[in-house]
Write a structure and sequence with these properties.
about 140 residues; mainly beta; 4-stranded antiparallel beta sheet; 1 helix; 10 strands; about 40% strand
Length: about 140
């Protein structure tokens, strides 16, 4: 499958896979970022793309940054197929991080793009739902 992508600056790095079987496409930091505990930054990634209809993309955190207490605040971030503007990635350094601060150099991998297929549904309002063994059992109702 092909996906159209547009570089928005000459220096923008386009996403790349780290290995032949990698599910995710690595996204690179567009500029140096210095984060302290509790900081949040939103980075324009320097590219726009047209996701094929019937698919959406997720931006997911990299485990290498997660070990430093840095993640994506709304992970996974969702990008719909009808959005064609510049992609952005939010990063947050948790206040509970064991690190006081962390520097991310330009060109460092900061997240991954995962492409997902989805089905469209039609909601059907009903007065009653079918019975199931679990029923209304919620959090923790199926055991440990």
């Amino acid at each position: 499958m092909k996906m159209k992508i547009k570089r928005l600056t000459l220096l923008s790095q386009l996403p790349r896979r780290g290995s032949k079987e990698a599910a995710g496409w690595d996204v690179y930091c567009p500029r140096p970022v210095h984060l302290r505990r509790g900081d949040t930054v939103v980075l324009p990634l320097g590219f726009a793309a047209k996701i094929p209809d019937g698919y959406y993309a997720s931006l997911v955190p990299r485990s290498s940054l997660g070990t430093k207490g840095i993640t994506i605040p709304n992970a996974p971030a969702t990008i719909d197929s009808d959005y064609t503007g510049q992609w952005h990635c939010g990063l947050v350094m948790h206040s509970s991080s064991k690190h006081e601060e962390y520097f991310i150099p330009e060109g460092h991998r900061i997240c991954q793009i995962i492409l997902h297929k989805y089905e469209t549904i039609e909601w059907e309002e009903v007065d009653e739902l079918p019975e199931t063994e679990r029923g209304e059992g919620g959090f923790g109702s199926t055991g440990k």
